[in-house]
């Protein structure tokens, strides 16, 4: 699928600044999943799913039910929405919706949530703590979106966060199939389905400072170069023992700044942001480099990056995937870059031409064993 709009104008004027509506961003949009398949997925034990109902006969007016579901008859014909997280990790066709947004950093992409709403279905006015593109599929939906503004949040039901009061809407429109709505983090919004409809939310994670520091602290404990201990600045016998001196605070801050600005921290951050949201499936048997030429040469062989996997380049010799570092020598660099840009399914012929060296084959085998990529035969 091709997203048709001015990307440079978007990045300059809208990205993380204000919401925008891209009419017919996807011309002739075709849904990659049907409501029936989505409902079936929500019946699976491992799927993260919930139904949100607008219930006038309850105290709060809302009810949340978590999957897996056995049937949907009790929800009726109107006023409810089914949401399923990370559908791209279950259905490769849904994962293809990520490709048009790869003008943004790969590591920021979180997942594709898919929702099916009956008539008048919605989740109420709310805020998200991440940037999101909402693609309208089958049916139509009315959206009201405001710019960033101070709003009070509350929980009318468990696992449902909404905002109190009204907000000023800068977008107040009906969306039809192929329309794309961009909503930055912190912008209030409310969507109500006008008829049975599908929506695809391509979310971009935005970790908080606290979250990053927590992850960095955990992984830094394994790094010998960061085990250096704090040393006091020049002390005076006149200092009062129970007063935290400004010089001491400055020394502590500088101690942390030196750690954050080190090359070692670059590598640790690369490990963190290359981690997948969920554990990647590893093959039952390990693949070795000697097998790679034969595997790539198979007829109708295809290679695909595992949904949710990331393979990122930090420098010419350093790539990161699944939270691990891959040291790439020069002769394997074309192979590494090909794997990094891989999105969706590709025939193996081109990769076979690149992976002529032992180092290239070793890299492919390692990424397979890490669950970052996998090979398969198309027998259709």
TrEMBL record:
Record keyword Lipid metabolism present: no
Cofactor: Fe(2+)
Pfam families on file: JmjC_2 (PF08007)
SMART domains found in the cross-reference section: JmjC (SM00558)
Keywords: Iron, Metal-binding
SUPFAM superfamilies: Clavaminate synthase-like (SSF51197)
GO molecular function: 2-oxoglutarate-dependent dioxygenase activity; metal ion binding
Residue ranges annotated for the JmjC domain, each copy included: 93-221
UniProt keyword annotation of Transferase present: no
Name the record gives this protein: Cupin superfamily protein
Species in which this protein is naturally found: Idiomarina loihiensis (strain ATCC BAA-735 / DSM 15497 / L2-TR)
């Amino acid at each position: 699928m091709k997203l048709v709009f001015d990307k440079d104008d978007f990045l300059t004027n809208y990205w993380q600044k204000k919401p925008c509506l891209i009419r017919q961003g996807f011309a002739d949009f075709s849904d990659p999943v049907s409501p029936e398949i989505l409902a079936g997925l929500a019946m699976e034990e491992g799927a993260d799913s919930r139904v949100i109902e607008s219930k006038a006969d309850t105290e709060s007016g809302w009810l949340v039910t978590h999957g897996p579901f056995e049937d949907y008859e009790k929800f009726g014909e109107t006023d409810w929405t089914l949401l399923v997280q990370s559908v791209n990790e279950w259905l490769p066709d849904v994962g293809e919706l990520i490709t048009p947004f790869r003008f943004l950093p790969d590591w920021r992409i979180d997942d594709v949530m898919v929702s099916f709403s009956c008539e008048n279905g919605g989740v109420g006015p709310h805020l998200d703590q991440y940037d999101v593109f909402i693609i309208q599929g089958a049916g139509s939906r009315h959206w009201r979106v405001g710019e960033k503004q101070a709003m009070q949040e509350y929980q009318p039901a468990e696992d449902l966060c909404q905002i109190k009061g009204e907000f000023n809407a800068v977008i107040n429109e009906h969306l039809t199939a192929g329309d794309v709505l961009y909503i930055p983090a912190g912008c209030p919004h409310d969507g109500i389905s006008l008829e049975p409809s599908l929506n695809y939310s391509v979310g971009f994670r935005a970790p908080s400072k606290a979250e990053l520091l927590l992850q960095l602290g955990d992984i830094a404990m394994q790094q010998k170069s960061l085990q250096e201990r704090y040393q006091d600045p020049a002390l005076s016998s006149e200092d009062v023992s129970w007063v935290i001196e400004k010089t001491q605070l400055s020394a502590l801050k500088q101690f942390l700044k030196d750690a954050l600005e080190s090359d070692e921290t670059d590598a640790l951050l690369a490990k963190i942001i290359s981690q997948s949201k969920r554990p990647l499936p590893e093959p039952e048997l390990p693949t070795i480099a000697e097998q790679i030429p034969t595997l790539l040469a198979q007829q109708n062989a295809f290679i695909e990056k595992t949904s949710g996997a990331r393979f990122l380049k930090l420098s010419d010799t350093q790539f990161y995937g699944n939270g691990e570092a891959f040291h790439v020598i020069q002769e394997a660099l074309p192979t590494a870059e090909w794997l990094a840009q891989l999105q969706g399914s590709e025939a193996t012929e081109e990769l076979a031409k690149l992976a002529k060296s032992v180092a290239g084959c070793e890299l492919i085998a390692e990424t397979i064993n890490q669950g970052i990529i996998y090979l398969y035969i198309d027998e259709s």
